[in-house]
Amino acid sequence: MANDDRPVQCTFFGTTSVFVSDATAGIFTDAFLSRPPLLRVALGRIAPDRGRISQALARGHVERLDGIFVAHSHYDHALDAPEVIRQLGGTLYGSESTLNVGRGAGLGEDSLQRIADGDEHTVGDFGVRVFEGLHSPGNRYPGTIDEPLTTPARASSYRDGGCYSFHIAHPTGSVFIHPSANFVPDKFKGVQADVLYLGIGALGAQPEHFREGYWHHVVEAISPKLIIPVHWDNFMHPLTKKLRPMPAFMDRLTDTKDFLDRKSAEGGWTVRFQDPFETITPFVP
Length: 285
Ligand SMILES: [Zn+2]
Prior knowledge:
This protein has 7 helices and 13 strands. It has one domain (about 10-280): 4-Layer Sandwich (Metallo-beta-lactamase, Chain A), CATH 3.60.15.10. By secondary structure, the protein is α/β, with parallel strands linked by helices. Helices cover about 25% and strands about 20% of the residues. Strands 6-5-4-3-2-1-13 form a 7-stranded mixed beta sheet, with helices on one face. A hairpin with a 2-residue loop joins strand 7 (about 120-125) and strand 8 (about 125-135). Zinc ion (ZN) binds near residues 72 and 160.
């Protein structure tokens, strides 16, 4: 049963990491909190930073965790999820590649749940529906992770393993998390959500017709009351500092912002950026 004493809260942690909770359960997407610096990503090996992770979890008041749904197994989504589960408990939900990240970190099979297109998973009063989709254009590390992946590892070892979006339904309202800025035409037809966390990573580098298609097949299909752009921040900067955009050679956030402004003016959509560690209660009038 829904507990009215504790409304659904959504806390943002940068990239596509969002913590959704009520009195019955806590669900993370991705929970990527270490954000290793550029030099280590480019030239070295990366591993979860336990100090940064526990600090971010404390600052975001994440006390109860039931599951982490991982969008795909690139390191900026999957690196930290096993360590967060080690610290707080819960189940790792992901592709076989993501589960191999969990196995490499020492999680037991009872903490791992494979996901597939069309699945429904019940977590407390939440029902999470899984949609398989496409990575944003320019997937640098396609493929799968076929063996348990131990850390430290090269960023290139984190192959995408399949990309997923999540519809998180609650008796009081629903949240859709669409991490990667790409679309399958008509995939979300008939799917509605009150809040849409919309991946805009690399959208600034795409041609206008791509952005229009993205808007049509994702935003207009889901028809949210509130759109919160995600995956726009430079994830090689720590969460202890103010978020900043990806460098210009990778993305052009100003172009995406112009597009978002135009779309919201034309269609009456509400677009709002959420600060890291900021908590919203989207279903409370
Ligand atoms: Zn990716």
